[in-house]
Amino acid sequence: MFGDLKRFDTHQYQPDWFQQLFDSLFPDTGAADIRSVPRGSFPLINVGRTDDAVHVYVFGAGLTAGDLEISIQDNVLTLQGKRGTQDEDDAGEKARSHYRRERASGEFSRTIALPEGLDPDRAEAQFSNGVFRIHLPKRAELKPRRVEIQAA
Amino acid sequence: MNDVVKHDSSRRDVSTESRQTVTLWPAVDIYEEDNALYVVADMPGVPHDGLQLEVDNNVLSIEGEISLDMPEGMSAIYAELRGQRFARRFTLSHEIDSEAIEARLENGVLNVRLPKKETHRRRRIEIQAA
Asked: What Gene3D superfamilies has UniProt attached to this entry (chain B) (predicted)?
């Protein structure tokens, strides 16, 4: 569903047009040599809307519940946290030679503006498979209401 | 009349194009340590059963279907991650023991360990004083 949206362009790690063209011409070269040597915002955010709520999806691979701080103020959602690198996790290990380092690491802070009329007090968040889903219900008075038609 | 037909067909092309599954390239870290190569890939939203890891003809392919818990009737209002699946391939060098590859998926991060064959392990060469 989110695939249909092409209005926003962000810096995501994607092969450039030339590489894509090349890959489509010569499909077999699509595999990069594992040792060949060659970044973007983290985490990526998607927002969806239903009749009674706004859902924010935060793609934070490698983060656990304690690593991400979610706060809402004046309809502005702020996500803060830190993703450690693996090198730090097993500090003191032997030297490593890196061939690729595309994954963002370290501290991050991202802010997005939310639509009006949400009730931040009833917001909930859950996470699974590296995706955080924030459920922000709309204020009751702003939900669409069905208007009954009465026979005259 | 011919023009109208032409218009129609071009429009159909555009719509089928936008309905194609969009495949993303997962960001990876690749490093070597002692007797193995390691591939770490960010694949948020990919559950265990949506992940496919294959080694064929010295090509390692990583594929994952993104599955999000989406309520019915939701419409997208903003999207940075636009795609339904992740896929990426790497050519392995001959010293990798493809039988002994291990992988682990944790919180959307895939860790693949590619051990080298016994015969290709690093040996220390003693330097002798002349």
From this structure: 2.60.40.790
